[in-house]
Design goal:
330 residues; 66% helix
């Protein structure tokens, strides 16, 4: 199930603090926004590092106004704009390169540090993200976006106290942005304070009612607190807003399974994974409520549909078979 997110960018989180499922198949997480890491992950560079010098020389070479240092002194804006355009198209590595060149020409520009921090979040490089966001805040202490990004980076590192402090600083500067409320909701869900988490998610949704990730996170939180009907309503909204949102479909399948609607659960799991994975997840749900015969049949179908699922599904078969035998021998 998913609150969402391996990476917390503006969305959800990976799950934690719950008993491990019988199956490896259902991942209960919140979207903290996961992205595939490009072939090269760029680090934050100190002015003394050779890589920064190389970036500056490349920026000088490529600058539209010529090759002299004076001519391109202010052309960091050109590279920042290149980075923005690359980010808009999901070209993370290209964005990082452009922002690094902009930073080489203007090391004291907080907005570039902030944007590089966002790139590092997407690449899963939490330490470098934290470095950039801290530099952005040093340059402009009132930058609420940098504080919010810093909170997301700490949240991904499970440093909840530091995340909370950063989110609160962000909201002091600008209480009308949704992401810090979402981040605080994730943090409180981790701590098991689901009622307070729900308040923060609902606040985020007041500011961004069309954000599918926030609806998913609220639904996940309601699942954790056992409010299945409300959870289903929130998760249905999430998949309506984003029909390709696999984690929300996964969570919705889990919710329907807990309600006893296994046919609908299978349909939602099928939208989250392949058919074998859907059978595996349904088998897990059956096993949770003691329907071991149905669980065994579902795990067997998972193996039949996709032999590569054999290890996971066979582990579940063995576990269910052992449990079933224990009950029969009592």
């Amino acid at each position: 199930m998913t609150h969402e997110g391996a990476v917390v960018t503006d969305g959800d989180r990976m799950s934690g603090g719950r008993p491990a499922p019988l199956v490896i198949g259902i991942a209960m997480s919140m979207i903290l926004g996961a992205c595939a890491t490009p072939p090269q992950t760029l680090r934050y560079m100190n002015p003394q590092e050779p890589a920064l010098y190389a970036a500056k020389q490349q920026a000088l070479k490529d600058a539209p106004n010529g090759s002299s240092g004076q001519a391109v002194k202010n052309d960091w804006k050109f590279y920042e704009a290149q980075g923005d355009q690359a980010m808009d198209h999901g070209m993370i590595h290209e964005a990082a390169t452009a922002y690094q060149r902009a930073l080489a020409l203007n090391l004291e520009k907080g907005s570039i540090h902030n944007k590089l921090g966002r790139v590092m979040l997407k690449q899963g490089d939490w330490d470098q993200a934290i470095g950039h966001f801290n530099l952005a805040r040093q340059i402009d202490p009132a930058d609420s976006s940098a504080s919010e990004g810093l909170g997301l980076a700490y949240l991904n590192q499970s440093e909840d106290k530091k995340a909370k402090d950063a989110f609160e600083v962000s909201l002091e500067s600008n209480p009308d942005i949704a992401a810090p409320y979402n981040g605080l909701g994730i943090m409180y869900d981790r701590e098991g304070v689901h009622g307070l988490a729900g308040v923060f998610f609902e606040t985020a949704l007041l500011l961004e009612p069309q954000n599918a990730h926030y609806h998913n996170n609220l639904g996940y939180s309601l699942l954790l607190s056992g409010e299945l009907d409300k959870a289903i309503a929130s998760l249905e909204t999430a998949v309506r807003l984003d029909p390709a949102f696999r984690k929300a479909h996964n969570n919705l399948g889990y919710a329907y399974g807990l309600k006893g609607d296994f046919d609908r659960a299978f349909e939602e799991f099928r939208l989250a994974t392949d058919e074998a994975g859907a059978y595996n997840n349904v088998g897990y749900l059956y096993s949770r409520i003691g329907k071991y015969q149905q669980a065994l049949a579902s795990f067997q179908k998972a193996i039949e549909k996709k032999p590569s699922w054999y290890v996971k599904a066979d582990q579940n078969l063995q576990a269910v078979g052992t449990k079933r035998g224990e009950l029969q021998n009592q």
